[in-house]
Amino acid sequence: MASQYDVIVVGSGPGGYVAAIRASQLGLKTAVIERESLGGICLNWGCIPTKALLKSAQVFEYIKHSADYGITVSGESKADFAAVIKRSRGVADGMSKGVQFLMKKNKIDVINGFGKVKPGKKIDVTAADGKVTEYEAKHIIIATGGRARQLPSVPIDGNKVIEYRKAMTLEKKPDSMLVIGSGAIGVEFAYVYASMGTKVTIIEFLPNVVPVEDEDISKELAKQYKKIGIDIYTKSEVTKVDTSGSGCKVFVKTPDGEKTFDVDVVLSAAGVVANIENIGLEEVGIAVDRGKIVSDDYYRTNVEGYYAIGDVTKGQALAHVASAEAIICVEKIAGLPHVEPLNYNNIPGCTYCTPEIASVGYTEKAAREAGYELKVGKFPFTASGKAKAAGAPEGFVKVIFDAKYGEFLGAHFIGTNVTEMIAEVVAARKLETTGEEILKTVHPHPTMSEAIKDATEAAYGEAIHL
Q1: How many folded domains does the chain comprise?
Q2: CB-based contact 85:168 (threshold 8 Å)
Q3: What residue numbers bound the domain in which 203 lies?
Q4: Which residues are catalytic?
Q5: Which of 127, 238, 337, 448 has its CA 20 to 30 A from that of 33?
């Protein structure tokens, strides 16, 4: 007889392991299936290790510019690339062990292997040795995550044309790199490698870098990246990569005609696709649309007893989105009252390059297209005492309010540590806070976060520090 559970979660990323823990907290007998390391891509190959790489890059930048802070560092400063990579992997390993501890603490069974869902609320798990074991649950949550998208014209060979996982484990720092795509993955790795001395070129198909962001943010990041020597080509497309030589010859179609670039390595960072192949969806009859599993506001698929959360379903492909979906899904399964669907228009987005980017809600363009009359305010960090003292005057805070009712429509930040500031706006929007209320909210001085109030004052024509 198959092992039976109340809940089985397929995948242990920030959606899967959170779902498992919440299910256990609610008294459900729970198991999680994972084919690699606990924590999924986020903890092992995404969110966490990339932040470790970025921190090393930022520390190196501090050392190179220590004289700006009145500190002299004698001798030549060098980045030990192998040591930087080793530190990043150590941080990731430590976080994965933390998830192992949480599984034991919450009495969750961890099943190692590849899970394939079957009709009748069953799952076959194939272990590393090929042995197949069947499990059964009242509720099956699919949280298999995503992987790097491959462009038809740019096949990834893992050697000269790489994706983010390989970019985190290169044995040697390349002298030159071309990055395809300027989303979060692309611009973060561009900064890491550029700061360590690699000549970086970014190719973006759309008109602006970080194209999901407000246009003012995109322009500011492009300006800051060009200052540190990163070349950027927008409205451009890689048509071919020739890897027959010692490096890569990259052919790019630009608004000014075709250009070729000779680089050591190409990083393909053209987005993420869902891991939904060969996991049994067709056999069970679970509906799929445009590469995503179809689900409702509580992540129920069209087949009773099967659910989907995270990158495999609707919503932004972000770790915190997967975790939020996990809790909503499990609390609905457990029958908790008043489970509220997720508001996808109030999801913060963070990009951890330097300067950092953080945003939530409408861009100015989207708000105008939605028919709002706006009050828009900007406050530059050049006018912030804390930012100037920190030697980080780059960037600004931009806030957008509905002129009629004061609704906080959106906020867009670029600067040092702004990813630590955005939650204030998320909470304010959740609580339906107005611009007038932000004006009356006392912010501590000197802080970076007081720029939110300063930008709001600018929006309402009451700027004190501008």
Answers
A1: 3
A2: yes
A3: 161-270
A4: 445
A5: 337
168, 88 in Cβ contact below 8 A?
yes
| Residue 2 pLDDT > 70 | no
What is the tens place of the pLDDT at every residue in 111-125? 999 999 999 999 999
The answer on 122 and 32 residing in a single domain is yes
Say if residue 1's pLDDT is above 50. Answer: no
Token pair of 281, please? Answer: 């969806």
Q: Is the pLDDT of residue 320 over 60?
A: yes
Going 56 to 390 to 398 to 201, the CA torsion angle's sign is: negative
Flag whether pLDDT at 428 surpasses 50. Answer: yes
Binding residues: 51, 115, 181-188, 204, 271, 311
Report yes or no: 355 and 415 within 8 Å, Cβ to Cβ: yes
Q: What is the CATH number of the domain that holds 361?
A: 3.30.390.30
Could you list the residues known to form a binding site for NAD(+), using ranges: 181-188, 204, 271
The pTM for the full model equals 0.93
Q: Which residues face 148 on adjacent strands?
A: 272
What is the C-alpha to C-alpha distance for residues 268 and 325, in angstroms, rounded to an integer? 28
CB 164 within 8 A of CB 46: yes
Binding-site residue positions for FAD:
51, 115, 311
**C-alpha closest to that of 103 among 20, 171, 216, 175:** 20
In sequence order, what are the residues at sequence separation of 6 or more whose Cβ sits closer than 8 angstroms to the Cβ of residue 27? 334
Does pLDDT of 215 surpass 70? yes
